[in-house]
Design goal:
CATH class of one domain: Alpha Beta
Number of strands: 13
Helix content: 40-55%
Strand order of the largest sheet: 4-5-13-10-11-12
CATH architecture of one domain: 3-Layer(aba) Sandwich
Radius of gyration: 22 Å
Length: 459
């Protein structure tokens, strides 16, 4: 069928439209960000049951390119890309992990971790980058003079861009804040051949530079202000509901930095609602690091006004952003979804990540922020024992081994490692070994008792 999409200004008073193949990021009339708008009437020519059956049939199949959990929903994402121009790493299809033991500890047993970091480059950024780079390949195929694709990044975006561009044979340029990304994140764009620039500034400074560089349309902007990225990331919502056999969770907790994911997941839920695949919407929670919390501060005043902040150094480096480009989209989404914004301190995020790790997870610090906020909302009764909760895990913990090692060595600034676990160096003596094992088992039982007391006190 002839499905189509276009860019559209997000300003309700404007709504100017542009071709999806145009190199444009802000509305030329009012300066607002753009969104990708789909022809919903055309999409409604298939009913909800037909869409569910089609998406289920394609899910993780071997049929190119539909086995990708993004391109399996191509009609909803970017139908303008020909199948032979799709650049895909079989992204999506990530585990929806039932955090049963963690849930029992905190008294919310129906809690799930959407492990978006179990992806090609180890973060959810792959979901958006496959769409953006595929569209660039399509544009080049159609004659566009695009020399390279560029982004500012705190690590994960640069990794995804470099990998997908390398696969497509398109040069990539990444701008990183010097000394503010992990070694594992830095080596990814280097290994994939990206032109890698480490600037003596923060993410917001890198973002200001990349905006200038991409003013000339021969270098295409890949940051989330480019709404093509949002189209891939919104499939997280669809996939979660699909994994729950087309049932909607009650609450979705999302780490927030540049805030593209908040609007993206909201858009995915709204598309399912508008096309009849679901009959209700979840409540969305945005979790911010206390040292980079401009959305939280705006939430405290009812979103009456927003002021950028100078982001402080935080362990959650990927969301160390004081002037998020997707702020207006995020606020609109939170208003629509009865949204909550909460923050987590360095102590809270580090302990939450470590506690969940003790139950079998292996969390990045940004997921730690989301888990810490989840604990706060459970304590305040906003998240109730009967709720089905999904926490979006944005990156794989292996990208942040320095954070893990520092915690368990007691070496993180501003953090007391309450769940520290270190290897025990002992003499080869059976009695010493037996005593050490007994002591450690007792210590772990004490943690369980502490959380049992916490639950009882909360109740």
């Amino acid at each position: 069928m002839n499905f189509n999409c276009r860019f559209q200004c997000i300003n309700p008073a404007c709504r100017r439209q542009y071709a999806i193949s145009e190199v444009i990021y802000n509305c030329e009339s009012c300066g607002s960000l753009l969104e990708v708008a789909h022809d919903l009437e055309a999409l409604r020519t298939r009913d909800a049951r037909q869409w569910k059956d089609l998406f289920d049939k394609r899910y993780k199949s071997a049929e190119w390119p539909y086995g990708s959990a993004v391109w399996g929903k191509k009609e909803w994402v970017c139908p303008a890309v020909d199948d032979n121009n799709v650049v895909s790493m079989y992204e999506g299809g990530t585990n929806l992990f039932w955090a049963e033991r963690f849930g029992k500890m905190i008294g919310v047993e129906d809690i799930w971790i959407k492990q978006c970091g179990n992806s090609h480059t180890g973060s959810f950024k792959d979901l958006g980058m496959t769409v953006l780079v595929s569209m660039v390949k399509q544009m080049i195929c159609d004659g566009a003079d695009i020399r390279a694709v560029a982004c500012a990044s705190t690590g994960d975006t640069s990794a995804a861009l470099a990998s997908y561009c390398a696969c497509a044979g398109i040069p990539s340029v990444v701008f990183l804040p010097k000394g503010k990304v992990s070694t594992a994140q830095l080596i990814q764009p280097i290994a994939n051949g990206a032109i890698t620039l480490c600037l003596d500034t923060d993410f917001d400074g890198c973002m200001a530079i990349v905006k200038k560089i991409t003013e000339k349309k021969q270098i295409y902007l890949a940051n989330s202000m480019n709404s093509l990225r949002i189209e891939g990331q919104k499939t997280v919502s669809v996939e979660v509901v699909q994994q729950f056999e087309w049932n909607v969770p009650d609450i979705v907790v999302i780490p927030g930095g540049n805030l593209g994911n908040v609007s993206a997941l909201g858009k995915g839920f709204l598309m399912m609602y508008e096309l009849g695949l679901v009959d209700r919407l979840p409540r969305i929670v945005c979790a911010q690091a206390a040292k980079a919390n401009p959305l939280y501060l705006s939430y405290l005043n009812g979103f009456e006004h927003f002021e950028p902040v100078a982001a402080g150094k935080t362990l959650a480096s990927a969301i160390q952003i004081g002037n998020p480009v997707s702020i207006n989209k995020a606020i609109d989404t939170l208003k629509r979804f009865d949204g909550v914004v909460e923050q987590a301190s360095e102590q809270e995020l580090a302990d939450a990540a470590a506690l969940a790790d003790m139950t079998g997870l292996f969390n990045c610090p940004h997921t730690g922020v989301a888990l810490a906020v989840t604990l706060k909302l459970v304590s305040r009764g906003i998240i109730k024992p009967e709720h089905r909760v999904v926490v979006v895990s944005t990156a794989h913990g292996l990208k942040f081994t320095g954070f893990k090692t520092g915690y368990h060595q007691g070496a993180l600034a501003e953090v007391e490692s309450n769940y520290v676990n270190q290897p025990l160096e002992l003499a080869a003596d059976t009695d010493l070994v037996r005593k050490a094992i007994d002591d450690q088992i007792a210590r772990r039982r004490a943690v369980e008792v502490d959380w049992q007391m916490w639950r009882e006190h909360r109740d």
